[in-house]
Amino acid sequence: MIRSFSNVGGRLSGPGGQMADAVWLDLVNPDREEEKEGERLVGVNIPTREEMEEIEISSRLYLEDGAIFMTAILPAHTEGDDPEMAPVSFVLTPDRLVTVRYHEPRAFVSFPSRAERTGIDAPNAEGVLVALLEAIVDRLADILERAAREIDVISRQIFRPKDDVPRDNQKTLEEIGRKGDLTSNIRDSLLTLERLVGFLSHATLQRKSGKEIRERVKTLSRDIHSLLDHADFLSQKITFLLDATLGMINIEQNGIIKIFSVAAVIFLPPTLIASIYGMNFDYMPELDWRLGYPFAIGLMIVAAIIPYAFFKRKGWL
């Protein structure tokens, strides 16, 4: 599918209209015929899906036939903790922007409608690209903010649990793992965007773009850098929470083992006494003693109370 957008009076209009007049062509899950149509309109080769998925920097950021080719990894379906990560290619020609994607990042849905409703400072394809990248970075910032709030909730569950709610360590570990995966995915996306914006900044100097565009690209670079710092902070906090949770589990396990150890020590002397008087020798003085049975029972009780009192006094119970 090819969605075309035109600039009408400073407002992005579309999708629809004549593709020949479009300032932005958005190729969504294009087949070969749609790729050929896009190539015919812009006059350059459009990256295939296989080319977009290559990880070499030289395959993601390059100049060819007067066009700038840039690819970044962007998330989609970010409402949960398992976003779909896939590459999106941006092809900037002197008069058009072409995007090629095979999934649905939220910015590609919200940006056109907001740009049409409120207007954008995008008189040309370059301006549309920068505005779209700003919307993408804003979306990534929103995801990190949501992740930070949810990580704070997990932190409170670990360090300030409610008395009437038992701690579920397995569930906590699963939540920490999901937040770690989400943060890692967003950080990877930001890294690809950081390289993309750096390449775009250099390209705008070569193209002698307007001062405003260059300033906005610099601002984008600073925003991405600050988000990377925030993502690193969240990653460190997640690691800390993971270590803390494992420490809590070890404390609980040690408490259980301590109970069994104390119980074994308490019942060891009575067991020894019972073993002695359970021997079947013919000559044992207590066998014919009328008070032998209550004496043995009392001796076992006293032998159990003494280590219990000792442990209690030491504060081990």
Please describe what this structure looks like:
- With about 325 residues, the chain is an alpha+beta fold.
- It is about 60% helix and about 15% strand.
- It has 8 helices and 7 strands.
- A 7-stranded mixed β-sheet has the order 2-1-3-7-6-5-4, sandwiched between helices.
- It is rod-shaped and about 115 Å long.
Task: Summarize the structure in short.
The chain is an alpha+beta fold.
**Uncertain runs with pLDDT below 50, 5 residues or more?**
none
Number of alpha- plus pi-helical segments: 8
Helix/strand/pairing class, anyone? alpha+beta
Query: What's the gyration radius in Å?
Result: 34 Å
Largest sheet: 7 strands, mixed
Distance between the ends: 70 Å
